[in-house]
Amino acid sequence: MGKPESWDVVSPSSFHPLITTKNNMPTLLHLDASPRGDLSISRQLSAAAVAAWKDKHPGGKVIKRDLTKTEMTFVDLDWINGAFSTPDQLTDRQKSALAISDTLIAELLEADQIVIGTPMYNFAVPAVVKAWIDHVVRGRKTFNYVATGPEGLAKGRKVVVAVASGGSYDQGSGSEAYNYEIPYLRHILGFIGITDVTFVQAGGTMRVAQGQVSSEEFMTPLLKQIKAAV
Ligand SMILES: Cc1cc2nc3c(=O)[nH]c(=O)nc-3n(C[C@H](O)[C@H](O)[C@H](O)COP(=O)(O)O)c2cc1C
Fold first, then answer.
1. Structural domains present in the chain
2. Could you report the per-residue pLDDT of 107-143, keeping only the tens digit for each?
3. With 0-12 CB in 10 A as exposed, 13-18 as middle and 19+ as buried, what is 67?
4. Which letter does DSSP use for residue 218 in this model?
5. Of ligand 1's atoms, which has the minimum distance to the CA of residue 120?
6. With a 6 A CB cut-off, is 201 part of the ligand 1 pocket?
7. How many CB atoms lie within 10 A of CB 127?
8. What is the DSSP letter of 87?
9. Which positions of the chain have pLDDT values less than 70?
10. In a 3-state reduction of DSSP, which class is residue 29?
11. pTM of the predicted protein model
């Protein structure tokens, strides 16, 4: 990716104040993206990951962000112009367009660890996950362009992602190439500096829905895997 001129080298702290100063309390950000409530496999797995994290960090703080219940706008002109302005230059409309982005970025930067539960929709991330990404991947907040190229500003965080899909895209399934979700998530998290990412692939949920395999048989190895990943 080329370096846009308007993203030229600017110290992040000279622009918007960054919320990178953390308290000492271990903090986990828990994101969910399935609208299927208790039936959701990705939610069951992310909940197990959060429970395992809480066991490891009694007294730790969990920030819960249910993306299916979060009002998120798409990136629009006010968002773009606001993101490239200093706080004192922001119009009311730009402030309002950036408000949800500010909140979601603050949650991300407050966390040491992130657990994401997400379905696969149309071979990629659901729209709510993409909307979250569009709000948190923001110049001078979570990435910056420096002399050597882009630099992620959210380094040092660990992420565990549970991806539920009707079909299977596991290694050897023959369908790996159609999985645009995991490579994309790996890339975009890396872009903001997060490289410690573990994916738990719950592929083949269709077999549970069709009664070909019991929920317990399907979930047991995945629950073991996700608990170990936290
Ligand atoms: C709109 C929609 C699109 C879907 N697209 C895919 C897909 O591209 N590939 C796939 O394997 N499963 C697809 N599925 C199936 C879901 O990934 C599967 O039901 C998964 O278990 C949903 O996650 P959840 O159990 O956490 O809700 C789709 C389901 C819906 C509702």
1. 12-229 (3.40.50.360)
2. 999 999 999 999 999 999 999 999 999 999 999 999 9
3. buried
4. H
5. 17
6. no
7. 14
8. G
9. 1-23
10. strand
11. 0.91
